[in-house]
């Protein structure tokens, strides 16, 4: 008797958006095009760039290519590491070492010891667009209150008020930007037909429980296992009617699911 296929439920995780998306509009240079180029550049840096991204490589990209300040570059990197919980066991020892750093050289040495998953980091940078708004739509009749401007925020459109983004808002954001998210994770040439001789890949358009719909371009993309693991940064799921959660890539690896997802 054939095994019954599990009932798969997927949902957008709230933590990366609630605690990872900074409550300011993203830097103008953090466009989808530039974020995509981060992966390409990181892969040219060997083990320092992919699959784990070192802070030294990210700082070079952020400060020399994207024109971000040192503090903003570190803020993005550290926040991603904290939200993704990738090195939580190492943070107590790292905090002690960092607190003892007495000069810029020692501080930089501490920071250079931190790494994050490269693909998760580009997703983290992308969800900074959660708070991107139109300055024109923010205009109000009353005169804006005057306040000092931070040099790091010069030239950006920042929200005029804070707003708690609920789970529906997070889901809507992912649905509206699914094409961009997949483009960040797909490797060059992977949008072609599935190749059984290549390493195992999954079709994003046939993901079980996927109710996003999406365009033909999304349905034609194939993701590597590494990309599925990274996608688990913002999407989780269950195969037991929501009694427990399961990482997205583990769901995709189930034999009953592979028959549907490819």
TrEMBL record:
<dbReference type="InterPro" id="IPR039589">
    <property type="entry name" value="TBCC1"/>
</dbReference>
<dbReference type="GO" id="GO:0051684">
    <property type="term" value="P:maintenance of Golgi location"/>
</dbReference>
<dbReference type="GO" id="GO:0031616">
    <property type="term" value="C:spindle pole centrosome"/>
</dbReference>
<dbReference type="GO" id="GO:0051661">
    <property type="term" value="P:maintenance of centrosome location"/>
</dbReference>
<protein>
    <submittedName>
        <fullName>Uncharacterized protein</fullName>
    </submittedName>
</protein>
